[in-house]
Amino acid sequence: MSALEQRLAVLDAELAALPGVLVAFSGGVDSGVVLAAAVRALGAGRVVAATAVSASLPAAERVAAHEFAVGLGVRHEQPRTEELSRPGYVANAGDRCAFCKSELVDVLTPLAAELGIADVVTGTNADDLRAGFRPGIRAAAERGAWAPLARAGMTKADVRAAARQWGLSLADKPAAACLASRIAYGVPVSAEGLARVEAAEAALRAALTAAGHGVRDLRVRDLGDDVARVEVDAALVPHVGPELLAAVRGFTRVEVDPRGFRSGSMNELLPDPVRYNGPVRRDDLGGSVAGGR
To answer: Which of 19, 52, 145, 262 has the maximum number of C-beta atoms within 10 A of its C-beta?
Structure first.
C-alpha cells in the first residue's frame, strides 16, 4: 500500500466513524477533497457542505462551489457570515484570519446543530500545520472544528493526487485565498475595498486572456494609498506592460511584482515576531462541536 493509500485509509476511517458531518467548503481543492471523502465514507445523505457568503468570497467562487457540491449530491448551505462586523477583522492586523475563522465557525456550529450534526470539519492539510503563521487554524480549532486531512497526514500534494484519482473537477484548481488576503496588513478591510480588488483581478485576467496569455495564478494586492501590486505567473511577468495594467481600475498607481505570484506574500511584510509563531501542532487541531473528538 502506497503512502497516499495509507493516508486515504486513515481519512476514510476518521470520517466513517461519524454519524454525519458538515464540511466548511470554500470551493478549493482541500475542502473539496474532504467533502468528496466524506461522501465516499458516509454517503451523500449524511454530509452537508457549507460555503460562507460574504464580501470576501468572489461571486464566481461561490457559484463554482455550489456546482461542485450539487454534483456530489450533497446538501449545500450558503449561510452569510459577517466578518466585517468584527473590529479585529476590519483592523487587518497580522491576526486577521483568526477573526475570519472565528466568525465562520461561530456561524457553522449552530447551523450544524440545527441539522443534528456534531462535527464541523475544515480543509486544513498537513502542510498548513508547518506553514508557521496560520492564526486562523488555531481559531477554528478552539471553536471545535477539526481537520481530517491534517489528522490523516495528507499534504497538499496528497490532496491533489487524491482529487485526480477520484476524477474531481477541481483537482488542478489554483489556490484561491479570500479577497482580504490581497489587502496589506494595516490597511483597513472594507466591503468597497474587497469589491475593488475582485473587479481588478477579473478585469486583468480577462485582459491577459484576450492578449493570448493564459494565466493560472493572479493577484492584485492593495498596498494602501491607492497603490496596487500585481502578481502573476513568473513566466508572464515580462508580458505585463502598461497596456495590460490599464485594465486594473480604481488605483492611482499599479505596479508589477518582478518576482511573480507567491502565495502568502503579504506575510513577508509582517515583522518577524508576528510572522512566525511556530508551526501548528496536531494537538491544536481541535475536536468536534460536541467536544467528543
So the answer is: 145
Closest among 55, 32, 50 to 110, alpha carbons compared = 50
Q: Is 282's pLDDT higher than 50?
A: no
Rounded to the nearest 10 degrees, the angle between the axes of helix 96-114 and helix 135-142 is 30
When pLDDT is cut at 50, 70 and 90, the band that residue 108 belongs to is: very high
- What is 3-173's CATH number, 3.40.50.620, 3.30.365.10, 3.40.50.150, 2.40.50.100? 3.40.50.620
pTM, two decimal places = 0.88
Domain with CATH 3.40.50.620 in the chain: 3-173
DSSP-derived secondary structure letter, 19: S
Cα 1–chain centre separation: 31
The amino acid occupying position 74 is: V
